């Protein structure tokens, strides 16, 4: 499993790096980032699209046709459309979510920002996100962009991944620790 994850992250880094270089050359990093976010929202909102990009059953030709139609309907063009067609042609659509994340990380690093992945039990308000960014900025010493994921299974609290550090203040983890401590006592 770790080998597969490593393979995907390696592929994602290479593709994202190439896309970033092209976007930087075209002076369209912000547009590319916006279009990638739009495509990511489409993937997250559609089980059928997710199945298309994850399943090895579809041929490269079918994936290219489907992706082209989706991009036209969503009015996503330019570098991102060409990039996604190349990814589909090369049978690498399964790594698109990782490519999008890698692109965001590269773009943030280029802007002098650090990216943090935050998992919360419920959606954070704008005020909570602003406060969290300020707190993380004081820790990291740089501006921090946050990618928030909602996971109700953590019950409460946050899980923050900033670089190689992870801070887990989730209620699920605290309850698991308490359960373990109680087993050791009894």
UniProtKB/TrEMBL annotation:
Recorded protein name is: ATP synthase subunit delta
Q: Where in the cell is it found?
A: Cell membrane; Membrane
Summarizing the function annotation, the protein's role is: This protein is part of the stalk that links CF(0) to CF(1). It either transmits conformational changes from CF(0) to CF(1) or is implicated in proton conduction. F(1)F(0) ATP synthase produces ATP from ADP in the presence of a proton or sodium gradient. F-type ATPases consist of two structural domains, F(1) containing the extramembraneous catalytic core and F(0) containing the membrane proton channel, linked together by a central stalk and a peripheral stalk. During catalysis, ATP synthesis in the catalytic domain of F(1) is coupled via a rotary mechanism of the central stalk subunits to proton translocation.
| Keyword tags | ATP synthesis, Cell membrane, CF(1), Hydrogen ion transport, Ion transport, Membrane, Transport
| NCBIfam families, A to Z | ATP_synt_delta, PRK05758.2-2, PRK05758.3-2
Q: Name one GO molecular function term.
A: proton-transporting ATP synthase activity, rotational mechanism
Give the membrane topology, semicolon-separated if more than one. Peripheral membrane protein
Q: Where is the signal peptide?
A: none
Q: Which organism is it from?
A: Phyllobacterium myrsinacearum
Task: Return the GO cellular component terms, semicolon-separated.
Answer: plasma membrane; proton-transporting ATP synthase complex
Q: What is its main location?
A: membrane
Per the record, the similarity remark reads: Belongs to the ATPase delta chain family.
């Amino acid at each position: 499993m770790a080998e597969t994850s490593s393979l995907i992250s390696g592929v994602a880094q290479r593709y994202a790096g190439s896309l970033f270089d092209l976007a930087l050359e075209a002076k369209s990093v912000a547009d590319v980032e916006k279009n990638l976010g739009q495509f990511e929202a489409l993937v997250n909102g559609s089980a059928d699209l997710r199945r298309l990009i994850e399943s090895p059953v579809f041929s490269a030709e079918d994936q290219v046709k489907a992706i082209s139609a989706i991009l036209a309907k969503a009015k996503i063009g330019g570098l991102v459309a060409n990039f996604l067609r190349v990814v589909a042609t090369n049978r690498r659509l399964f790594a698109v979510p990782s490519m999008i994340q890698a692109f965001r990380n590269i773009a943030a690093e280029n802007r002098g920002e650090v990216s943090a992945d935050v998992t919360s039990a419920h959606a954070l308000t704008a005020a909570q996100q602003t406060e969290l960014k300020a707190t993380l900025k004081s820790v990291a010493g740089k501006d921090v962009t946050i990618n928030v994921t909602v996971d109700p299974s953590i019950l409460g609290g946050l899980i923050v991944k900033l670089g190689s550090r992870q801070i887990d203040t989730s209620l699920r983890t605290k309850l698991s620790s308490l359960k373990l401590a109680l087993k050791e006592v009894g």
